[in-house]
Amino acid sequence: MFVRLLSVIALVAALSAQDTDTVLRVTSRLVQISVIAQDKNGNPVRDLTKDDFVLTDYKEPQPISIFSLEAAEPNSAPPEPAEKPGPLTITNRGVHANSRPMAVTVILFDALNIGSDDLQYGKNAVVRFLRTLHPGDPVAVYSIRGPQVRVVHDFTEDTASLIAAANNLSGTRVLGGSTLIGSGADDRAPTRLKAEWTLTALEVVARHLNGVPGRKNMIWISSGIPMNIGLDPALFNAARQAGVDQQLEDYGSRLHRIARILAEANVAVYPIDPAGVRTDPLKTALQIGNEQFSGHMVTAGGASAPQLETMRTIAALTGGLAYFNNDIEGNIRRATDDARITYTLGFYPAQQSWDGKFHDLQVIVKRPGVQVRTRSGYFAASVAELRPEREQSLKLAVASPLEGAAIGIKVNVQSNPLQFYGQEMTVEIDPRDLLFEQKQGRMRANVDAVFAQLSKNGRLVRGEKKTVIFNLTPESYDDALATGVFLTEQITIERNTSRVRVVLQDASTGAVGSVSIPVRGTGLN
Question: Which of 120, 350, 396, 503 is the most exposed place for a label (fewest CB within 10 A)?
Answer without folding.
Answer: 350
